[in-house]
């Protein structure tokens, strides 16, 4: 065998491993966000099924309150999954997180409503949503870390942008399914069984994702670290030798507090903008702008289509210009355009095309942040604590600000009587994220091979 043939075989093997890693990361995030989309877009129906003795506004707020409560365990999950991912390996953590996520989602589809078991239905919904929140905290961070470590340095941003792209694909699939169900089914059918269908689909999808993940090798960067630390076989003995369960967290808090706080601040914009624009927006367009539910959901589907089309471009641009510049540009654009775009939508006088155009602008701006953020977070921490640092900062922001966004903006609109309240809230959060990103170090293009200490 010639040397050129050997190099070609090695290249083919690396390319095949990267494709498998990308597929596994895509499927897990797709399932997670297909569920979140279904819950958000079915909030009104779920409110009727589980909180029938309240008026419509209380039903919606109760539904979103359960949505927000599901994020309570996100920081706990971030600590647990981060430690497992840094100690037992990225593949190990991802193969279990998808099983918990799909299993709890499937059980929601089987959960009896208030008419059958009374208050127990709402309690069951809350508990299953909290299990989802726990498992989800390991999914996005793990997939982002996994792909960033697998991808070639010069194309890391583009490959890692597959993680938010898969998120948007899950949201789009949920949006299209729910839109079709609203068209095909009447209110009685939606309330009795229709709302269950998207949740039940998570069962078989999760088993497929689990199968793919358990047949993957761990990322080359992680395997190299374990070998350097003295493990003889990374597949049979995946634990980092000489470490206890809490060691990655201790190392993170002892040596990387600054990076954790900065990445938390940067993640705040993603948390609020993502849930406001891609999850809450159909409710806003329906309740505040007066469009029908199916029309509001279809408008968001158009926004998601543009989001998916733009996300890889933004990942590619981050490879060319750097993560920091892209994130700063996204913050500034949100600060300048958010209030004017909301004003235009509020004064559209029922013109759906104007509302869709505004949402498309929001989608493009959001991708400048989302297409860059996962790579930025992965590059902010060394290998030994990368999963923990990514998970804690990202999920901390989502727990405090992301999951609560639909509830907070609904409350703000009720308290102020102004449909501009969400825009002001998003603008303030954009300012916070801008301050955080300007305090960060430039990490673009690092090799991600440093094991501990301070990232250069």
Automatic annotation (TrEMBL):
The chain crosses the membrane at residues 63-84, 104-128, 162-183, 195-212, 260-278, 298-315, 327-346, 352-378, 390-413, 419-439. Signal peptide: none annotated. InterPro entries: H+-coupled_symporters, MFS_dom, MFS_sugar_transport-like, MFS_trans_sf. The keyword Repeat does not apply. PROSITE patterns: MFS (PS50850). Gene3D superfamilies: MFS general substrate transporter like domains (1.20.1250.20). It comes from the Bacteria. This is MFS transporter. It comes from Actinomyces lilanjuaniae.
